[in-house]
Amino acid sequence: MQQIKSELKNEINKVLNLLSYPIKDIMLAPPKINGFGDLSTNIALVLSKDLKVPPIEIAHMIFGKLDQAKLNNIDTVTVSKPGFINFKISNEYLQSQISIINKASDKYGRGLNGIGKNANVEFVSANPTGPLTIGHGRNAILGDVVSNILEWQGYDVTREYYFNDAGRQMRVLAKSVEVLYFNLLGKNIPFPEEGYKGDYLKDIAKHILEEDGKSLSKGSPIFREKAEEIIFNQIKTSLSRLGVKFNNFINEKMFYDNGDIKRLLEELEKKKLVYCKDGATWFQTSSLGSDQDRVFLKSTGEPTYRVPDTAYHINKVKRGYDLIVDVFGADHTDTYPDIIVALKSLGYKTNHIKVLIYQFVTLLQNGKKIKMSTRKADFITLDKLVHEVGSDVVRYFFLMRSMNTHLDFDLNLARDQSDKNPVFYLQYAYARICNIIKRAQSLKLSIDKDYDPSLLNETSEIVLIKYMTRFPEFIDNAYKSLEPQIIAIYLQQLATHFHKFYGECRVINDNHKITQARLNLVKAVKVVLGNGFNILGISAPEKM
Question: C-alpha distances in angstroms, 526 versus 179, 426, 513?
Answer without folding.
Answer: 57, 11, 20
